[in-house]
């Protein structure tokens, strides 16, 4: 059996390796650190699972499009940003209700712009069955999370909730992969 990669697949691999190389370079130089579940940047923290999910969303769209055009990269970037923006809006405003967090209207407005842009790109596309199923997994996992008390792990907090972490990762990945499959489809 002969393994042959075409130009698109080689470009896809180069993009993935570039992203991973940049992350490892930042880790190696001390620009970022890893603590527990988190990448610690000088200006923010972000879950490792969030970064991995965004990278996979980006790659799914590139793979499904099978061409390297500006539109393909736009869709791939939008897939990563849209799902994280929508997830952050939903998660944060559930935390406002359940944990007494202060509403952040400017953060909401900035993220909502990405969400509206993402919706505009897929409003006329019918999602695949897999994409629809993953949207359903997102909704069910979020409802389960809220009904179980909305426990979550926070950077700097020593307590750890296995169910909170599992529901966080499942709901975030389901939304991201559903949207990546939806925007990445050629129909």
Short description:
The chain contains 6 helices and 3 strands, in the order H-E-E-E-H-H-H-H-H.
Task: Note down, in words, how this protein is organized.
The protein is mainly alpha-helical and 187 residues long. It has one domain. 70% of the residues lie in helices and 5% in strands. The chain has six helices and three strands. β2 (38-40) and β3 form a beta hairpin. The protein is globular, with a radius of gyration of 18 Å. The mean pLDDT is 88.
Q: What order do the helices and strands come in, and which of them pair?
A:
Layout: H1 7-28, E1 33-35, E2 38-40, E3 45-47, H2 48-65, H3 70-99, H4 105-122, H5 129-147, H6 162-184
Antiparallel strand pairs: 1-2, 2-3
Helix pairs in contact: 1-2, 2-3, 2-6, 3-4, 3-6, 5-6
Q: How much β-strand is present in the residues?
A: under 5%
Mean pLDDT: 88
Terminal CA distance reads 32 Å
Summarize the amount of helix as a percent range: 55-70%
List the main descriptive attributes of the protein structure presented here:
187 residues; mainly alpha; three-stranded antiparallel beta sheet; 6 helices; 3 strands; 70% helix
């Amino acid at each position: 059996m002969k393994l042959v990669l075409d130009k698109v697949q080689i470009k896809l691999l180069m993009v993935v390796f570039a992203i991973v190389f940049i992350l490892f370079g930042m880790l190696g130089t001390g620009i970022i650190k890893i603590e527990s579940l988190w990448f610690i940047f000088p200006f923010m923290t972000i879950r490792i699972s969030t970064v991995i999910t965004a990278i996979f969303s980006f790659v799914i769209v590139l793979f499904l499009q099978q061409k390297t055009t500006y539109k393909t990269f736009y869709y791939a970037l939008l897939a990563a940003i849209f799902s994280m923006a929508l997830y952050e809006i939903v998660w944060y405003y559930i935390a406002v209700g359940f944990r007494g967090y202060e509403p952040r209207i400017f953060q909401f407005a900035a993220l909502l712009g990405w969400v509206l842009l993402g919706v505009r790109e897929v409003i006329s596309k019918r999602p695949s069955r897999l994409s629809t199923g993953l949207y359903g997994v997102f909704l069910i996992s979020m409802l389960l999370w809220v009904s179980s008390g909305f426990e979550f792990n926070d950077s700097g907090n020593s307590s750890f909730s296995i169910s909170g972490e599992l529901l966080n990762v499942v709901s975030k990945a389901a939304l991201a992969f559903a949207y990546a499959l939806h925007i990445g489809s050629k129909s």
